Amino acid sequence: MQLTTTHLLATPCDDEEDNMAMLCCHGTHGEMFMLSRYPDEDEVELTWDYEPSTLEGLKITLSATTLLVEIGAADKDALGGSDHLQINHGTAEADLAEVEETLQNILKGTGTYIRTP
Fold first, then answer.
1. Are 74 and 63 in contact (CB under 8 A)?
2. In terms of pTM, does the model score above 0.85?
3. What three-state secondary structure class fits 32?
């Protein structure tokens, strides 16, 4: 499954939301994707098209132009029946450090994060 967005919005630690880390974007066709996690929780909340699910064991790969989200086969209902979502993004290079920090905070101890060029 694919989604195209102009940029990824990232918040590594939101003080007003009990230090929640959140990454989200809206697709060019109105789709909405969001990952979030509170630091004291073991599960990640993934929201796809406004339907939230809690997951463990996510694998996320970030590059300069794509974000690949991979989930276990047992959780594929969270992505409308698919086990992956490729997000093509136009996030500015200067903003990718914040995206990376946010993903590391979300996945720490519960998933896998990979950064590629």
1. no
2. yes
3. strand
Note the pLDDT tens digit of each residue in 46-74.
999 899 999 988 999 999 999 999 999 88
**What's the structural domain count of the chain?**
1
> Could you report the per-residue pLDDT of 10-49, keeping only the tens digit for each?
999 988 888 999 999 999 999 999 999 999 998 999 999 8
> CA-CA distance, 105 to 92, in Å (whole number)?
20
Residues near 83 by beta carbon (within 8 Å), at least 6 away in sequence:
70, 71, 72, 73, 75, 76
Residue range of the domain that includes 65: 2-115
Query: 26 — phi, psi (to 5°)?
Result: -120, 135
Alpha helices in the chain (DSSP H): 96-107
Residue 117 banded pLDDT, cuts 50, 70, 90:
confident
Which segments within 1-117 are labelled E, that is strand? 2-5, 9-14, 20-26, 32-37, 44-48, 51-55, 59-62, 66-70, 84-89, 112-115
40: which residues sit within 8 A by CB, 6+ positions away? none
pLDDT, residue 16, reads: 84
